[in-house]
Amino acid sequence: MTLRKILLGSLFLFILCAFKDTTRTVRKRFFHPDPEGEVFILVVKSRYELQVFDRQGWYATYPAVFGNKSLGDKMMQGDRKTPEGIYHIVRKRPHEKWDKIMDLDYPTAADMVKFNERKAKGLIPKSARPGDGIAIHGTWPHDEITVDNYQNWTNGCISLKCEDVDELYSIAPIGTKVIIQY
To answer: Is residue 99 part of a domain?
Structure first.
């Protein structure tokens, strides 16, 4: 009888784990369902999240993916790393591949200081360039599974599921502060 219970229990656990939903979803505060006042964005690369804050505090957390798997700070053009620092949304537009896109003001003066220091220390080639074109955007059509599976695929951008980038696009105006950290 005990062996039968152990086998049934093991089978139940196996089935439970085998059919576990791995979909990553948005978390939002329950009260005050719409953001109030000015919003700002905090991207936490180590947690694969993009968080939105408003006058009341935390508003929502969206699952996100980035560029290079290392999650380190962007060093130079072509390294596929997502930069770390304080940025602002400078342009918003529909995008033919990634639904919507919100361009950031990378590289900033602070990024150029880091870039030049790294170059002077020999950490990057003398011919290296800082890169540009960093943005927040959606995924390829019908490819939200990349976000669910933590698959970093961009050239340094922040990618959200298309439905999430649609929502963020509607609440984050041009000029919104975006803080990106490890």
So the answer is: yes
Q: Please indicate, yes or no, if residue 66 is contained in any of the structural domains.
A: yes
Distance CA 23, CA 145 (A): 8
Task: Answer whether 171's CB lies under 8 Å from 136's CB.
Answer: no
Domain that holds residue 154: 39-181
Asked whether residue 6 is assigned to any structural domain, the reply reads no
Residue 110 belongs to a domain with what CATH number? 2.40.440.10
Count of domains for the chain: 1
Q: Is residue 11 part of a domain?
A: no
pLDDT in tens, the chain (182 residues): 676 656 555 555 545 444 444 578 888 888 878 899 999 999 999 999 999 999 999 999 999 999 999 999 999 999 999 999 999 999 999 988 888 999 999 999 999 999 999 999 999 999 999 999 999 999 988 889 999 999 999 999 999 999 999 999 999 999 999 999 99
- The answer to whether 124 and 118 have CB atoms below 8 angstroms apart is yes
What predicted TM-score, i.e. pTM, was given to this entire model? 0.85
